Amino acid sequence: MARTQGSHAEITGPKIRTEALRLFAESGYAAVSMREIARAVGVQAGALYNYTPDKQALLFSLLKGHMDDLAEALSALPRAAAPMERLQTFVHFHIAFHLERPQAVFIAYMELRNLTPENFAVIEAQRRDYETGLEEILRAGMATGAFSVPDSKLATLAIIAMLTGVTTWYRPGGRLPLKAVQDRYWDLTRQMVTA
Amino acid sequence: MARTQGSHAEITGPKIRTEALRLFAESGYAAVSMREIARAVGVQAGALYNYTPDKQALLFSLLKGHMDDLAEALSALPRAAAPMERLQTFVHFHIAFHLERPQAVFIAYMELRNLTPENFAVIEAQRRDYETGLEEILRAGMATGAFSVPDSKLATLAIIAMLTGVTTWYRPGGRLPLKAVQDRYWDLTRQMVTA
DNA sequence: GTCTATATCACGATAGAC
DNA sequence: GTCTATCGTGATATAGAC
Q1: Is the CB of A191 under 7 A from strand C?
Q2: What is the total count of domains within chain B?
Q3: What are the entry keywords (chains A, B) (predicted)?
């Protein structure tokens, strides 16, 4: 009953995004052709242009969706009273979120330079907003005396770089389960921000 | 007296490497054409093949040279007696080395997937060797009781990710001079590894 | 919505003159 | 060592049939 033609919008649309994300993460935006995406989806190259005006818009859409997810998840975190608990929540959240979607995280880092300047500005602003979320926790902890962090901006960038680095080595089924990774990064983070 | 032909090997060879490094860092290996490199160097595309068998070998040569420089600089560090001093030296060194050559650092991270499997294995082994250099410092500090780091492998990766992250935001002439950046990252690192 | 076919252009790499 | 010219291939994107 397999059809080689006809309408499959409900399947094709999401599948284009899934396969493009996978291929961009594996080989890089510039190295992946529209023909290659089409082959993975199971359509001809021309059919992709029913779903995206061009390749650049497809990349931007994937990155924008990822950053939107991140912002939404961050805003949904519980606002515990104490900065120490808020920081612990953030550390656990950041690691889990990033390990759950390694492909999106990878292209959000690697393919920024393949965005047009306008699209880059949008994503970069979202990244700064996310960083500000952590910085506010650090500043709150400074105010209560819970943390000892002379330069909250630098510490914010240091912590995010340290935590995001987990995506470069973590593999499901590896030496440490997710929970252990979260706990150990939290130990390191806690020691780092307390005198 | 400008010549448009003739031999310029002593100029062209290094210039190809400089321009290729710059262009790969700016736009990515896959997005840069041999014609583009040739234009930046001031020769025709065909002339590049007097210096490299192909584009892949050019990329590998740049990455290999960078990793060789890193290994050589690491081995030249003073072997201070105390792990605390050795770690401080490492932190200052790692930051200075990486900030001195942002383009090479960038492509050493971003273009690994554009290496052939054989070339990738070579670079990856060098990266592991470098990480081992830090891990040995941490283990030495554990042995003397100077450090409190339950998982030296994870702490190694966390520290390197944190320190290398400086390349994503540091700009010469910015808010903090190099020395201040080194000192603040050392403060964070020291707090992180001591209980 | 998908297909086939194609316009237009650029790519990596090579050959042979100088 | 560099040039010009080119081979063979594949890229993005579009047009029009179904």
Answers
A1: no
A2: 2
A3: DNA-binding
State the smallest CA–CA distance between residue B166 and chain A in angstroms.
Answer: 8
Domain co-membership, A34 together with A76: no
Segments forming the whole domain that contains residue A14? 1-52
Quick one: closest CA in B to A181, which residue? B154
Last residue within a domain, chosen from A17, A33, A52: A52
Compute chain B's Rg from CA coordinates: 20
Residue whose C-alpha is closest to residue B22's, from B103, B141, B101, B134? B103
Whether residue A112 is found in the same domain as residue A58:
yes
- In order along chain A (195 residues), what is the average pLDDT of each group of 10 residues? 64 96 97 97 96 97 98 94 96 98 97 96 98 98 96 98 98 97 98 95
- Same domain for A108 and A38? no
Where helices occur in chain B by DSSP H, the ranges are 9-27, 34-41, 55-75, 83-100, 102-110, 117-144, 152-164, 178-193
- How far is Cα B184 from Cα B179, in angstroms, rounded to an integer? 9
Within 8 A by CB and 6+ apart from B37, the residues are B16, B19, B20, B23, B48
Which chain A residues are closer than 8 Å to B26 by Cβ? 113
